[in-house]
Write a structure and sequence with these properties.
about 280 residues; alpha+beta; Immunoglobulin-like; 3 domains; four-stranded antiparallel sheet; 7 helices; globular
């Protein structure tokens, strides 16, 4: 809760752990996902604004609270409270939310301000994977000496960059909230989710009404077909797909793309976000 502060036995110092601040905003986004009602996001906007309205001067500097207990607001920091601000902008695509969210490397890339981001993000995750692998190999602790969540920090699953770059989505991390993304891929030849063998995907830009992706078939001799769905659960209705100067009307949750051997394409996908009730059904169901 807001006042979850404990003495850390390792160093006998106060540790502030209001985990609600890093997770609560997803509950409102899940309501948006289920209903298509963007007004749910207003609840977290107001939360951010109310917290920051309780700023005060400390040692001549404006500082902003993070916790609230019996004695009122506490755990003041120099930076305005902004947890969930970027995610709120991701869901709303409202320019006012963009200003509240501040600078974000991934958003800068999507805005065309940093073409090197995709490669740097992938390299960073690969480096993080090797660090975790080494920590796992060098962990000499025994099961009876570990806390239940000790393994979270060295879990080798490293997917943040892949979710952002391939799906245009928010990384789910270890908290377990539903996946919020712009597109999801399916391999019809194998009747499974995910990209077909030898196919690569990259989301290059997004706005309130469209998502642009690049698809590449790395196989030199075999054609591939990939199904592109709007959202993780078909919640986004796809209205059109444009490539090579031509536009096709879609009006469905998904569409298919045929990729010739050693070929690629850029597709601008028109969509109505959160227009459909979410479903776990496969496109061929």
């Amino acid at each position: 809760g807001w006042g979850f502060s404990v003495i850390n036995p390792a160093n006998s110092e106060w540790s502030h752990r209001p985990a609600c601040l890093s997770r609560t905003h997803y509950s409102f986004a899940n309501a948006l996902l289920m209903t298509g009602d963007f007004s749910y996001l207003e609840l977290w906007r107001k939360t951010i604004d109310i917290i920051n309205s309780n700023a005060k001067e400390i040692d001549g500097q404006t500082q902003y609270p993070r916790g609230y207990g019996d004695d009122g607001w506490y755990e003041y920091k120099p930076e305005p409270f902004s947890t969930g601000a970027f995610e709120t902008y991701y869901w709303s695509q409202d320019p006012a939310d963009r200003e509240r969210a501040g600078s974000n490397p991934w958003q800068n890339y999507l805005d065309g301000k940093d073409d090197s981001y995709a490669v740097k993000a992938l390299h960073s995750d690969l480096s993080r994977l090797q660090t975790k692998r080494a920590m796992l190999a060098n962990d000499l602790s025994t099961p009876d000496c570990r806390m239940s969540d000790d393994m979270n920090r060295i879990n080798p699953a490293t997917t943040d960059a892949l979710i952002r770059l391939m799906l245009g989505g928010l990384p789910t991390g270890r908290d377990g909230y539903p996946l919020h993304c712009r597109v999801r891929y399916f391999a019809p030849d194998r009747q499974r989710s995910g990209l077909p063998e030898d196919v690569a995907a990259l989301v290059t830009s997004m706005d309130a009404d469209s998502t642009t992706i690049e698809l590449v078939n790395l196989n030199q001799v075999t054609a591939r077909q990939v199904i592109v769905q709007g959202g993780a659960y078909g919640e986004h209705q796809i209205t059109s797909a444009s490539t090579g100067g031509e536009t096709a009307s879609i009006d469905d949750r998904f569409f298919s793309v045929d990729l010739a051997p050693a070929s690629g394409c850029e597709i601008k996908i028109g969509m109505k976000r959160y227009a459909n009730s979410p479903t776990l059904a496969f496109p061929w169901s």
